[in-house]
Input
Amino acid sequence: MNRAEEDYIKTIYELTTQKNQSLIKTNELAERFGYTDQSVNEMVKRLEGKKLVSFIPYKGLSLTTKGKQVAIRMIRSHRIWEVFLTEKLGFSWESVHEDAEMLEHATSDQVLEKLYHYLGDPIHCQHGNPIPDLKGKMEPTTNLSLADLEVHDVFEITRVLDFKELLVYLNEQNIKLYDHYQVIEKDLFNGIIKIKRDSEEKTISMKTAKMLFGQKVNS
Ligand SMILES: [Zn+2]
Output
């Protein structure tokens, strides 16, 4: 399997889990990659031929069991490399994505398992995304975002989108994983949310708040 095929498989998996739906439309894939419908259709045919996806005309496509295994392996490899790059090589969390994208395709099972144990069988990557275990099982992810909370609620950030501009911004704002913030004002008209940690107040956009996931904690 080549890198383009693996990336398709991974993206189909991610779209299915993000949207929590069993079928993905080919135009959703075209949109995500910025490719033409025609090139997406050709790739889907190729993946169907390899029994990695099943396609129902006019309905959409889904991964087969074999396809899911490939996707989970890629995700596992990606996130294990992210842990290695940040914890062992000192990379910052905003700068590991591209290298992990390359390394995930180039890693044998043997290297991956050694690396995983070397890192102490980590459960999450640096962005709070769960790492599937050896059997492909992973912790369910929370989809509750900071934007969903009400004034006075206290929120613990446990996962952020792995998106460079966001991560750089969070560094500037000194917002980290596992920080607790209380919502002190929600201004939907202007699209901003004011949050507080100890005595420090911050104003962030609702757009950013929608990219920070976690859980409500008792204040
Ligand atoms: Zn990550």
